[in-house]
Every structure is written in C-alpha cells, then in structure tokens.
Design a protein that fits this description.
Order of helices and strands: HHHEEEEEEEHHHHEEEEEEEEEE
Helix content: 10-25%
Oligomer: single chain
Shape: globular
Distance between the termini: 36 Å
Largest sheet: 15 strands, antiparallel
Length: 431
C-alpha cells in the first residue's frame, strides 16, 4: 500500500517536476474569439475504388477457394454559414468460387453478393437562423449462389427524413486549434497577439486539415504548404525544430468541440425488411434539440434530446395500437487540457413513454443524435467515462469505465466494463 501511494504521489507531481512548454490555453476564460467565430466556406470530395483478389487451396476436403471484391466509394463534405452537407455512397460487388469435391454441401459453389450503402444530410439556412434539413440512410444487400441455385432476396433499409429548424451549432475545434498554434508560436520567442483576421484564416486552414487527411496519404505536406501559402509571414526565422514543434499542434487531443444550440421538427418514413420477414412501413415525427456550451476553453457541456412518435402504416384494420413514443437524451461533459489531460463523461439513454404493439414495425436499436459520433440506445442507458493523462517522456495513463443496460430485439442486456493502462518512465537516456 505504501508503494502504491508513493506511485500516485509521483504521478500527481509530474506536471510540476517536468513542465511542458505551452500546455493548454493561456487564458481559458476568454471566450470572445469563440463567440465571434463563423464557419469558413470549405469542403472536400474523394472518389476511390477498393478491390482485392485472393485464393488459397489445400488437399481435400477443403479444396480451392477464390474470392474477389470490388468496392467503389464517394464522399463529399461541404461546410459554410449557409449550408452544412455530407454525402457518402458505397457500392460493393463480391464473388467467389469454392471447389470442394468431397465437401458436405456439394462439389462446387459460386457465390455472388451485392450491396449498397447511401447516407447523407443537408442543413440549408434560408432566413437568418432558420434552416431546412434533409437526411437519408439507405442500405441493402443480396446473395446468390449460381452453382447451387441458392438465392436470398434483398435485405433493404430505407429511412428518409425531412424537417425544419431554428438555431446554429458551429464546430469550433478548428478555432481552438488555431489558438493553440498561436500560443505555441509565441512560446518560441515570438511577441504579439495575432489579429482576428489572422486567427480566422488559421481556423479555416485548421478546418481544411480534415479534408487534406481524407484525400491525401501524406496530408501534412499539403496542409502546411497551404498554411504557409496563405500566411507566409509566419515562416520568418523558423528553424527545423520550430516546424516540428508547431506541427505537433495537430496531434493535441482537443476533443470534438461545438458551440450553439438548435431545435428542429422532422418527419421520417422507415422501411426495413429481411430475407424471412417483412415489416410494414413506419411513419414518425420527432422534436429534436441540441445545446453545446463551452464554459471555458477547457470545459464543454453538451445536451442532446429527441422526442419521437411513430405509427405503423398498416393497410388492414388491426384491433391494436401501433403508436409508440420514446424520449432519448445525451448528457456530456468534456474537460481538456491540451495534450496533457482529457476527461469525458457521457450519460445517454432512452425511455418509452407510449408503448403500442411493436410486432408490426422494425425498431431501431440505436439512433444518432449528432453532431458527435456516439450512438444512443433507443431504450436503456449507457454511462461512460474516459480519462487520458500524458506527460511527454514521463507518464501515460488511460482509463475507461462503462455501465450499459440496453434493449435489443425485445431483450434487455446489462453489462459493465473497466480498464486502465499506464506507464511511468524513471530513466530516459540516449548514449
């Protein structure tokens, strides 16, 4: 126990004994740059094809197997004060050949699989903070074996959504990264604060860094070329070490940072079927709201919610109620100290308010409330907490804990998990 407490004391004192240069924000209470920030006009698109062909063989009964797949994909993203949109299209074709003369399922097989996945959204502002939205999620797959004359019908999922809303939520992560760049730049001995125009130019370039990462293999090369092309004065007097030090700002874990609020009313239409069963189409109406508030440059609170009412669109008269209503919420707190500390606490879940007969409709086990990447159970709850603590060349700690209770396919599953990893360096020497 004594050695354990000694280790904790060493870790807690690390930041004082081994200080880093320019860690976190110099003035975290100053929210004026964040409030004045406006989204830059930028975007990217990328079209590529993935493919593979592999074969292996061995002595019977396994025989010879050949597999091939062709998968084209197109991604487009657009962001500005007037419109935020994303489109993701994927097609997949997969075929194969199996020769197993002594196999239990017959001598040969020639399977073929086709699939598609289209998803996207558009938020278009038409008057002040009022916007129209269009969302869609469409995917399907089919299978056929030409040799064995086996076939599986298409499994299809289609969900278009339309709506109208008020408010704005801006991704302010590029601005925070620009502020961190400015602080790193001044820590190299440069004096004076950047102008607001320079900060906004830097923020636009920091936003575009994500696009460079998508479309280029060595994206840092293209990003810094564009960066210094628009801000050439910042290159004056910089040495090789300075460039590496400034480049490291792209790896600081600032989290996904947003600012603002919005509320929207949407209508959706859902059709989902499988190879064995067919569900009737379902119509729904939702009231959604999101609020992100940065208390300081280091602390962010997030609240997202959805009240969704759905009806099975049946053709015949059934003496049952198919009306369902569910409330889903996400509460999140994020504490970030640059690349030193990142603590995220999230509680999400859903509760049924009105329960009708669900045997006639497909129930989505998870929903996406955006703009973060987390999925929320439509019924049940998830409580998560994650911590990362890092001091270069000295200590690293990563911990995560969660408690989950989810209802999937009318069955509740409860689980929990915890893990912690870390390292502490007592001696670091190069001979």
């Amino acid at each position: 126990m004594r050695h354990f407490l000694l280790g904790i004391c060493l870790i807690m004192s690390t930041s004082a004994v081994f200080p880093q240069t320019s860690v976190s924000f110099e003035n975290p209470e100053n929210l004026e740059p964040l409030i004045q920030y406006r989204l830059p006009e930028w975007g990217y698109d990328n079209l590529w094809v993935d493919f593979y062909l592999n074969s292996h063989g061995e002595k019977n009964p396994n025989g010879t197997t050949v597999n091939s797949r062709l998968q084209p994909r197109y991604i487009r993203y657009w962001e500005s004060e007037e419109k935020i949109a994303e489109l993701d299209i994927m097609l997949g074709l997969e075929s194969g050949y199996v020769n197993q003369a002594d196999g239990p399922s017959g001598p040969d097989a020639r399977p073929f699989r086709g699939e598609y996945d289209f998803s996207g959204y558009v938020y278009e502002y038409f008057s002040g903070d009022y916007f129209a939205l269009l969302e869609g999620d469409f995917w399907g797959s089919s299978f056929k074996d030409f040799e064995r004359e086996q076939e599986r019908d298409w499994v299809v999922h289609s969900k278009p959504v339309i709506g109208i809303g008020w408010g704005r939520i801006r991704n302010v992560t590029p601005l925070l990264r620009a502020l961190r760049f400015e602080e790193r730049y001044r820590s190299l001995g440069r004096e004076g604060a950047f102008s607001m125009d320079t900060r906004h130019t830097m923020a636009q370039l920091m936003a575009q860094e994500r696009g460079f990462n998508v479309v280029h293999d060595r994206h840092h090369k293209y990003f810094w070329d564009a960066f210094h092309g628009q801000l050439p004065d910042l290159q004056s007097g910089l040495g090789p070490f300075d460039y590496f030090y400034l480049d490291d700002v792209l790896r600081e874990n600032l989290g996904n940072r947003y600012e603002g609020c919005d509320v929207m009313l949407t209508l959706d239409y859902l059709v989902h079927n499988t190879e064995d069963d067919n569900w009737d189409p379902t119509g729904g109406v939702s009231l959604r709201g999101r609020l992100f508030k940065n208390l300081t440059l280091e602390h962010q609170l997030g609240i997202r919610g959805r009240l969704h009412s759905s009806f099975a669109l049946v053709d015949d008269d059934r003496d049952v109620s198919t009306h369902n209503m569910k409330l889903n919420m996400v509460l999140q707190h994020l504490w970030v100290l640059s690349d030193r500390l990142n603590l995220a606490n999230t509680m999400s879940g859903g509760v049924p308010l009105v329960e009708g007969d669900v045997s006639y409709q497909y129930s989505e086990p998870y929903i996406h409330l955006g703009p973060s990447d987390s999925w929320v159970p439509t019924e049940g709850y998830i409580i998560e907490s994650s911590l990362s603590y890092y001091v270069e060349d000295q200590v690293m700690i990563s911990a995560r804990a969660n408690l989950r209770s989810e209802v999937v396919a009318s069955s509740r599953k409860t689980s929990w998990g915890f893990n912690i990893t870390g390292s502490y360096s007592f001696l670091s020497t190069v001979y």
